[in-house]
Amino acid sequence: MKPSSLTRRAWLALAAAGLAAPLHAQPGAVAREPIKLALIEGLSGAFANAGDAVARNIQWAVERVNSRGGVRLPGGARPLELVRLDSKGSTEEALSLLRSALDQRIAFVLQGNSSATAAALVDALDKHNAREPERRAIFLNYSAVDPALTNERCSFWHFRFDAHADMRLAALTDVLQGDRSVKKVYLIGQDYSFGQHVNRKAREMIAAKRPDIQIVGDELHPMGRVKDFIPYAAKIKASGAQAVLTGNWGNDLTLLVRALREVGSDARLYTFYGNALGVPAAVGDAGIGSVLAVAEWHPNVGGAPAEAFYAAFRKRFPDPREDYVHARMQVMVEMLAAAIERARSTEAAAVARAFEGLAYDGATLGGLHRATMRAEDHQLQQPLVVSVMERAGGKAVPHDVEGSGYGFKTLRRLDAAAVAQPTTCRMNRPN
């Protein structure tokens, strides 16, 4: 099929930038129809910064696959094409956009920022795929980390590429266990399924690993609606907590750490996402040695593959304000390409079956990251790194974050087996 003028212009732009390789060996061949990926994300509104960062990461991953010729299929390779759909941070809008993507016969839907939205999309997609098997699609989740999504709410059509909340908490509380200076911990999170789970599970893990620690606060706040976190920060300081554990993300995290700095709290911050999106700049020198983050990777992990990967990202996005790179989003797109090639088809059920048990050896990212998609629950098994904020410069922290002058140094690396969690998934698979 002849590509649209928009697709052709986009492809030519990539080629001019040196990012797109020819898809066909024969001169003058017409590019095949692209494989579309529908990104449903909040690209405006309270969490637009997080949505924009996701879109950059996935666009770059798409470009990397296309630069080596696209996805190999019988009859010829096909490029990937990212279709951005702005949900404005609304679950209702996200569901409407899902219907639009399905009407366009897009078989691959991507979303992550908000576990509540992810759960609604999973439910809607389950019903659609049962009702209209000729237009089925699969859901690739890069950030929605409520464990229920690969436990009691698991779905054959859903695959998660981020470590879920219990996996991240296992890593953070392992480090907390060894911090004997902490006797009091304050839990604070966003008031929706994910934030509620993090607070509840953090209590359990801390009690098991450090029964001597006192939980001096357990608080939830409205998601994306608090403009002034000073009252929360003042309560945290007054509690005497030496550590704050939070799953907050986006502006809810940035504003929280800024408020803690303003009230003079010296509590150590154990975070899921404290290594980007304005947090290091917001906390400043007060974060040195005291802001911890957990992720699958960070720019200062060291080694030639990591350095090459990060250098390539910075070349593509030289603006330091756009310095927010995730290995897992690259792995997600690379594994999608591999699953399509393994299935020899873009049909959703065939690709879903090809994903199950698929191992990624990191070869297309220079050996950077190794991971396996667990067939039992569709939860990616991968290593995690807990890091701490330091002033950038020197051998240990060569790269800063978002031009802030601060970067992160590895405290502990945990392999996939160390953070793996059991699952209660009882998956219904289509015939």
UniProtKB/TrEMBL annotation:
Signal peptide: 1-25
Entries under InterPro entries matching the protein: BCAA_transport (IPR051010), Leu-bd (IPR028081), Peripla_BP_I (IPR028082), TAT_signal (IPR006311)
Pfam families membership: Peripla_BP_6
Ranges for domain Leucine-binding protein: 34-390
Keyword Metal-binding recorded: no
CDD domains: PBP1_SBP-like
Protein family (similarity comment): Belongs to the leucine-binding protein family.
Name used for this protein in its record: Branched-chain amino acid ABC transporter substrate-binding protein
Organism for this UniProt entry: Rubrivivax gelatinosus (Rhodocyclus gelatinosus)
Higher taxonomy: Bacteria, Pseudomonadati, Pseudomonadota, Betaproteobacteria, Burkholderiales
